[in-house]
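Q: What residues go here?
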């Protein structure tokens, strides 16, 4: 692997690119968060207001996150047009960069074999790809990348003290992305500092510079946002998004202290089996494990894994995607176990068994991603697909329905370029519509003035022709 590392790393990155881009524009927009960010970014592009995010024309106090993700999606819409690929481009690119950064840092810190196996695990991990992450327009793929870059910075500052200043911009980006979630990378910085003892004298000035580089962009946006509605947004961000979410169960998302262990086995049983097989076939001596942990980067990885797993566990509100920043550390752990198995003394039979288990785990993980795209996310399984198929006919028209969800609103208004309207009854549509306007309904309509354009399993599309 050392002799062919760059070729193999290119294969891993190509695998990650495939898993993050395959049918990316053929998967339905999700309720709630993806459609919320989609609508806010589309509205920001129309209004030009970069400070306060809106949702359906009103200031948004449900999503109390600063606007970095909305900025980036709006920029993607501006560059590539409003479509399902440009909606998810920021997340997909962030996830791919996470695999690339993990490969390079792990190669330098732990060796090429561990890096390659860790890259394969991360590039095929279901939670990292699908759960509010790389293939959605949510914030968690970029958040995971920023946490990993924080880890890389903490690793490098021992040799190059001034690289610590990058902790400031990284923390500012996390704050502008997810608000109170900046406490996670800050907790990691503090934990590493405490583990190393007092800050070395040559790190004081980089630390102050980093603090300044964090404060300037965070304060600039905060002041601009305060001028919009004073403390209303920030009270919601602190009292609801931080305190209520951490101390109570909100939005009916409870869970036990074992919730995230269950998420791991639910989404990543394939790679857990591979890691367990490597551990059973090639047990890790206690002394060797202690020696590895006591190294500089070993202690850093332990702190990284512990904080990204324990902080979500301590939060009372449980959501599967809170575990996303943990997945690169998880991939590194599985990669280390597997690589160690192939390089440890032992019989060829054991290595053959391990190779078979790893190959099977990879096959299951990859097949699961492809199956999920077709079986659970296909846009043609929803009314969105029907609407998108008739985009030329609907563009510039008004489309009526008795009730719209937010994902359909984004598809109709943002992607197709039509205007969604509400008509509770057929009579309301007939009274308010004009020739060329269309109706989406789950009922069959017998009316000479309406042309049936499309009938799917659940909905039908009629257009007025009279």
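A:
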């Amino acid at each position: 692997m050392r002799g062919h590392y760059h070729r193999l790393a290119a294969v891993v990155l190509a695998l990650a690119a495939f898993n993050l881009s395959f049918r990316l524009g053929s998967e339905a927009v999700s309720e709630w968060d993806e459609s919320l960010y989609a609508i806010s970014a589309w509205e920001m592009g129309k209004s030009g207001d970069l400070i306060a995010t809106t949702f359906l024309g009103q200031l948004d106090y449900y999503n109390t996150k600063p606007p970095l993700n909305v900025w980036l999606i709006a920029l993607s819409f501006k560059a590539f047009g409003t479509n399902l690929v440009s909606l998810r481009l920021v997340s997909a690119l962030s996830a791919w960069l996470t695999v690339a950064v993990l490969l390079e840092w792990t190669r330098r810190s732990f060796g090429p074999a561990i890096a390659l196996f860790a890259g394969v695990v991360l590039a095929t991990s279901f939670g990292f790809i699908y759960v509010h992450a790389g293939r959605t327009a949510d914030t968690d793929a970029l958040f995971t990348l920023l946490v990993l870059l924080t880890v890389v910075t903490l690793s490098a500052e021992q040799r190059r003290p001034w690289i610590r200043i990058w902790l400031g911009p990284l923390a500012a980006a996390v704050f502008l992305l997810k608000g109170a979630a900046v406490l996670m990378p800050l907790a990691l910085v503090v934990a590493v500092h405490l583990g190393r003892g007092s800050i070395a004298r040559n790190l004081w000035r980089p630390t102050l510079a980093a603090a300044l580089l964090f404060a300037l962009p965070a304060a600039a946006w905060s002041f601009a946002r305060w001028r919009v509605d004073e403390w209303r947004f920030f009270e919601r961000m602190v009292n609801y998004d931080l305190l209520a979410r951490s101390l109570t169960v909100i939005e009916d998302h409870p869970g036990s202290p074992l919730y995230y262990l269950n998420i791991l086995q639910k989404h990543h049983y394939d790679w857990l089996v591979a890691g367990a097989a490597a551990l059973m076939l090639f047990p890790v001596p206690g002394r060797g494990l202690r020696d590895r942990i006591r190294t500089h980067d070993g202690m850093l990885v332990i702190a990284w894994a512990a904080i990204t797993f324990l902080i979500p566990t301590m939060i009372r509100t449980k959501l599967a995607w809170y575990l996303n920043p943990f997945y690169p550390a998880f991939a590194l752990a599985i990669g280390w176990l597997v690589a160690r198995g192939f390089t440890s003394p032992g019989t060829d039979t054991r290595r053959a068994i391990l190779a078979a288990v790893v190959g099977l785990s990879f096959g299951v993980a990859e097949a699961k991603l492809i199956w999920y795209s077709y079986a659970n996310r296909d846009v043609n399984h929803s009314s969105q697909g029907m609407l998108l198929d008739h985009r030329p006919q609907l563009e510039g028209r008004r489309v009526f329905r008795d009730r719209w969800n937010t994902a359909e609103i984004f598809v109709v208004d943002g992607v197709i370029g039509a205007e969604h309207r509400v008509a509770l009854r057929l009579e309301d549509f007939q009274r308010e519509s004009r020739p060329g306007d269309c109706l989406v309904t789950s009922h069959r309509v017998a009316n000479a003035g309406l042309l049936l354009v499309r009938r799917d399993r659940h909905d039908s599309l009629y257009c007025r022709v009279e």
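A: Context that may help when evaluating the design: The chain has a mean pLDDT of 93. The first strand starts at residue 54 and ends at 55.
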